[in-house]
Automatic annotation (TrEMBL), chains A, B:
Superkingdom classification of source: Bacteria
Gene Ontology MF annotations: monooxygenase activity
Gene3D superfamilies per the UniProt record, alphabetical: 3.30.70.100
Protein's name according to its UniProt entry: Antibiotic biosynthesis monooxygenase
Keyword presence, DNA damage: no
Transmembrane segments annotated in the record for this chain: none
Organism phylogeny: Bacteria, Bacillati, Actinomycetota, Actinomycetes, Bifidobacteriales
Short name of any one Pfam family annotated for the protein: ABM
InterPro entries per the UniProt record, alphabetical: ABM_dom (IPR007138), AI-2_Isomerase_LsrG (IPR050744), Dimeric_a/b-barrel (IPR011008)
Keywords tagged on the record: Monooxygenase, Oxidoreductase
Domain ABM: 2-90
Oxidoreductase is among the record's keywords: yes
Length: 95, 95
């Protein structure tokens, strides 16, 4: 299982639009048949910091996600609303 | 849902013992009735970096985890095998 911990920083003026776009991207991604889990979270100690925690059972499942219509449409929109784009940490699940 | 992304750095000489202790802690934690998910992962780009991603439905469920026998026994052991202890990022799940 490939596990992605992706973080973004969002300025207050972009917050409403970002939440709208990212909520839709998270819902559609979580609903993908090959998705092992997709969680959109907000840091408790900093409301401008968000993360999305993704679980992809196989490299193919992640690739299919990246090729999906909702990703191609919403991901660039979401990135434009962040300060420095997305910072990814990619890991392998041990347990 | 409270989501915890906790990271640790482990030196090569402590690796085998750390993996043994942390694998047991992860398995027992994931099996707790109130646990919403517990994932122990290793960074793909740095084998000395690990994270455990925890999902706790309520503050009580996390408190019960911290009071469990396996946590009280294994968590301090695990910490002793890391370089700087555990770095926690606590978040709220939005989606």
């Amino acid at each position: 299982m490939e596990v992605i911990y992706a973080t973004v920083h969002v300025k207050d003026e972009n917050m409403d639009e970002f939440l709208k776009v990212m909520t839709e991207l998270a819902r559609r991604s979580a609903a993908e048949p090959q998705c092992g889990g997709y969680h959109f979270v907000q840091r408790a100690d900093n409301h401008n910091e968000f993360a999305f925690i993704e679980f992809w059972p196989t490299p193919d499942s992640h690739e299919a996600h990246c090729q999906s219509q909702h990703f191609k449409t919403l991901f660039p929109k979401m990135c434009d609303l962040t300060e420095e784009g997305v910072q990814d940490i990619i890991s392998r699940q041990l347990v």
